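Researcher: Checking consistency across runs. Here is Chromo domain-containing protein again:
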Amino acid sequence: MCKTDWSNVNPKTQAADGDRWLCIPEAIKDDIFEMAHGDGHLGFHRAWQKMRGFVIHKGAKKLRVYIDQCDECKKNAVHRHKPYGSLQPILAPPIPFHTLTIDFVTGLPRTNKGFDAVAIYTCKSTKRIEGRLGIPVVWISDRDKRFVQGFWKGIFTALRTELLYKAAYNPQADGQSERSNQTGEIWLRHWQNIHQEADWDEGLAPMQASLNASVNVSTGDPPHKLMFGVDLRMPWNLLRQAFVGSPQASRQDADECAKYAAMVMKKQYDSRHKPIFFQKSDFVYLRLAQGTEPGYVWPSRNITRKLTQRHIKCRVIERVGRLAYRLQMPPELAGAHPVVSLQHLERAPQEGDLSSAEPPSTFDPRFPEDTDRAGVDAVLDMRHRGRGRGRRKQYLVRWSGVGNEHLEWLDEDNLVGAEEKVLEYLQDFLHHTQESTN
């Protein structure tokens, strides 16, 4: 037990019954932390209140580090920071149908012709929705099994078409196809409400004509005009005379507008996200899907998805592109695709992380009762603190077994047992002082 100096105690942060506190040695501090934090994993402030009456050297700092590296907290915690990542716009050359994006709208009611899904092809340059105008140079899609398997990969290789895939459960990687999907769904929803007796697939042709004749915000012109140099003959164009201009000039203007729109979009996107990078062999936490949201599902049949753990630990194999990583999946997710967007990842404590390491204990025969006494490797510097009678001498100490990230200033009275290291420093300091004066 140790006597309390109430003049240095803030009763709002820690108090004790009576005038005595229980001093906890370093060897069992983790057991005390587990006892205070392990009941529900409720965070620092609640755990700190449970430790009222205990004294641990730098206890608040060590408790924060302990909670920050708690594996159970990482698996089940709800993270409230900004999403990770930065936008990487795919800029296509101003050549019609050089780069195509494709995405599927699924879950539609089956029509009389047997259709229940729509494939939307969008040109990156003109924003035209069309799928029958030649073979593209670049093809952007998600990781649908139709495009990942060897048959289709072989066809695209023979046609010299480059395939670009989006990461798993990361629709933000290609905003154009997702935007085309949303616009198409909205158009079909309005059309279906007017033509309730017709099947939705009968509205695909007028939807394509309407979208291709409408001005695109990023290019400033309708896709049909960028393709052919003239506006499509639509009712709103009959009131003004359409004239044939230069398609090449319109495409150059549209390319500049698209690049400017991409820069504005990247600036807005990055302002709401923060970058993060992982190294090979790093441990990360993979976010699991909750409720009905899409994503990686925890394979548990006895627990509802609402109450399953939120993260699972994986190891980084390599970086794929700028925004995805290939992971070594745990046995519970053996069949999942290993390439994951960094938006689904959280940093995990690494093996050998010394952020919370303490100097290794050494035995000093002069103090056999101190089983957790740390050894001083060297004294590096000296300073004075305070004024008048409160003036005291401090030494900068490097502990044995740890690096310079754990240097610590200690008062001279607290260096009992390290007198030889202090004497070595003073002798070396005196020697350098004499050399400088000579």
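Researcher: Does this match what you'd expect to see?
Model: One thing to look at in this run: The chain has four domains: 1-68, 99-234+242-270, 275-347, 360-438.
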